[in-house]
Amino acid sequence: MHVSGVGKSGHIARKIAGTLTSTGTPANFLHPVEALHGDLGIVDPSDVVVLISRSGECDEVIAFADALDVPIIALTGGLESRLANRANVVLDCHVQAEACTTGLVPTCSTAASLAMGDALAVVLMQIAKFGADKFKAGHPGGALGWT
User: Fold this and answer.
1) Exposed / middle / buried, residue 100 (Cβ in 10 Å: 0-12, 13-18, 19+)
2) From CA 34, how far away is CA 137, in angstroms rounded?
3) Which of 81, 122, 123, 125 is the one with CA 20 to 30 A from 17?
């Protein structure tokens, strides 16, 4: 699985890819612009790509989506957006407003995307029957591996 986004959505995509990997679903962050400039070759026909965009109208993410020939899961608040229309599955990350005084800084929208990505990881853990024993095996260092 590959997870992708631009800007703050890209930061969230990196975290989601890390959570997926540590919970039994191999995943990596793939920057959409880098994908369009040669890194698209890492996407296998059996892969799924998760694309994150608050509006679903980010040109770089749409160009990446258009270049893909694999299933796409969109995490977006733009349920009628170009990304939503291109995706095979749309997970609704719409928020009423951002928390900042300008209404522009990604705050609530990034939290919604992060929560949805974590929920996706939990569902995939359940499907794979990924339990505490496997989780601990992948975390030999740090407190997570001690419990």
Assistant:
1) exposed
2) 32
3) 81
DSSP β-bridge partners for residue 74: 51, 90
pLDDT band at residue 45 under the 50/70/90 scheme = very high
Pick the CATH number of 2-145 from 3.40.50.300, 3.90.1300.10, 3.90.580.10, 3.40.50.10490: 3.40.50.10490
Strand 28-29: give its sheet, edge to edge.
28-29, 2-5, 49-53, 72-76, 89-92
User: pLDDT digit string (tens) for 71-81?
Assistant: 999 999 999 99
- Are residues 74 and 55 in contact, defined by beta-carbon separation less than 8 angstroms? no
What are the sequence ranges of the domains in the chain? 2-145
Tell me the backbone φ, ψ of residue 2, rounded to 5 degrees.
Answer: -120, 140
Q: What is the DSSP letter of 54?
A: S
Instruction: State the burial class of residue 28 (Cβ atoms within 10 Å of its Cβ: 0-12, 13-18, 19+).
Output: middle
Q: Give this prediction's pTM.
A: 0.95
